Amino acid sequence: MSQPLDRNRLIVPQVAPLYAGGHEAVETLLRVVAGLLLVTHGYSKIVNPFGAVGMVESLGFYPGVFWSPLLAATEFFGGILVAIGLFTRPAAFAAAIVLLVTVYFHGIVKAEGLGGAEKSILWTAIFLFFAIRGGNRHSLDARLKKTF
Q1: DSSP string across 34-86
Q2: Mean pLDDT of 13-41
Q3: What is the pLDDT at residue 17?
Q4: pLDDT (tens digit, 9 = 90+) per residue, 28-82?
Q5: Are residues 81 and 95 in contact, defined by beta-carbon separation less than 8 angstroms?
Q6: Radius of gyration, CA atoms only, the chain
Q7: pLDDT of 87 above 80
Q8: Please, which pLDDT band fits residue 2 given cuts at 50, 70 and 90?
Q9: What residue segments make up the domains of the chain, in order of their start?
């Protein structure tokens, strides 16, 4: 949970209400946006779940007929789950694993280095945050009063 805000430590104490009241809304916005962007990214894969067979096998994931649909489902359905905050931790963790592979793909396989992998690194960090944090009170996990 977050630490209480000490107004006396702020350079501009008048912004304390904004900070105190906004963190949960911004966290929810980040979760929803990240989830929906993952859905958007996974949409082309879910309509053609075997379309990435060659790509996943080129990365050493055999058999591709297993890994390609799993990749599609993780991105598409995992993104939906993160966005609505249902099974947030496992869905975000699965997304983070997929994104770590994209870090390897862009940074090493395609030899793009940090410049090529930086978006994947950022996305991995976002999903790792939600894998640890879970959904907040604005999630279906909270409504169900159950969480991983």
Answers
A1: HHHHHHHHHHHHHHSTTTTHHHHHHTT-S-HHHHHHHHHHHHHHHHHHHHHTS
A2: 91
A3: 85
A4: 999 999 999 999 999 999 999 999 999 999 989 999 999 999 999 999 999 999 9
A5: no
A6: 18
A7: yes
A8: low
A9: 37-144
- Tell me the C-alpha distance between 69 and 11, whole Å: 51
Rounded-to-integer distance, Cα 28 and Cα 82, Å: 10
**Which residues have C-beta within 8 Å of that of residue 107, sequence separation ≥ 6?**
113, 114, 116, 117, 120
In one-letter notation, the amino acid at residue 42 is G
How many angstroms separate the Cα of 40 from the Cα of each of 34, 37, 59, 93? Answer: 10, 5, 23, 18
With contact defined as beta carbons under 8 Å apart, do 84 and 36 qualify? no
φ, ψ of residue 3 in degrees (nearest 5) = -75, 145
* pTM assigned to the model: 0.89
With beta carbons less than 8 A apart as the criterion, state whether 106 and 69 touch: no
Question: Prior bond to 63 cis, omega within 30?
Answer: yes
Confidence of residue 1 (pLDDT cuts 50, 70, 90): low
| Cα 78-91-35 angle, rounded to 5 deg | 50
pLDDT: is 1 or 47 the higher one?
47
Query: Do 82 and 130 meet the contact criterion of CB atoms below 8 Å apart?
Result: yes
